[in-house]
Amino acid sequence: MARRKSKNRNVKRNLAYIFFISLIIIGLWSACETQKNAADEEYPASAISEAEKLMAVEIPDDLKSIYKRYEGFDLSFNPDHKVPNYVAWELTRAEARAQEASRKDGAFNPDVTVDSSPTLDDYRNSGFDRGHMCPAGDMKWDVQAMRDCFLLTNMCPQAHSLNSGAWKSLEETCRDWAVRDSAIIIICGPVLTDKITRTIGQGKVTVPERFFKVVLAPYANPPRAIGFVMPNSAVRGGYQNTATTVDDIEAITGYDFFAALPDDLENKIEATADTRTWFKR
To answer: ω before 44 within 30° of 0 (cis)?
Structure first.
């Protein structure tokens, strides 16, 4: 009789274990489904694979380029000018809101893997800022991404009035757009088709006369794009006054942006700069 009671107790205990484990499995499954659904609502499942295609830039064959893939952004570095031809990255809503890494996690340094990388001495006492193309504010989601964006291959000599003025304001606005539109593609760099009259340092780092930035919101309804061209100086009236179409940027730089889009969509959005839609709050 005692043996039967002991056996019954064991059965009841095993059933309790099974029930408890089942509750855990159901809870984990439910949490995963909730997280998946939240992610799907915030960011399209296909976006990761499509982002790299949208970041691709076709540049003239005679433009020298060293292609680099850093954590968080891609870069085409020009060894003759010692500045990037362009820098491209995707900025998602979550990345724009991130606060995990700070500028303290980054330090200006040459990229030792690139023989023609500028040095700290090139910028020292030059009168120009080390102007980020991919900004530190967009890389707060990852410490390595923050470190990479401080490499001098990601920099251009910028007038302080631009770097701390309209250029910075547009960077901040792009983060707002990423939050609003789920994710955006940003491509920027110096306008190297301009006549170059100034360099800095022994490395003769090109001082650009102008800079461009193009922004694509591929998941907005409808998708849209806009471009900006700024002088390497103070910008009167703010970055809004420098807005233009992507077609105009392509004509100025000789680059081809967003070629991965269907032709009819690409042609439509690159010919339009609807500032009222972009700048609405």
So the answer is: no
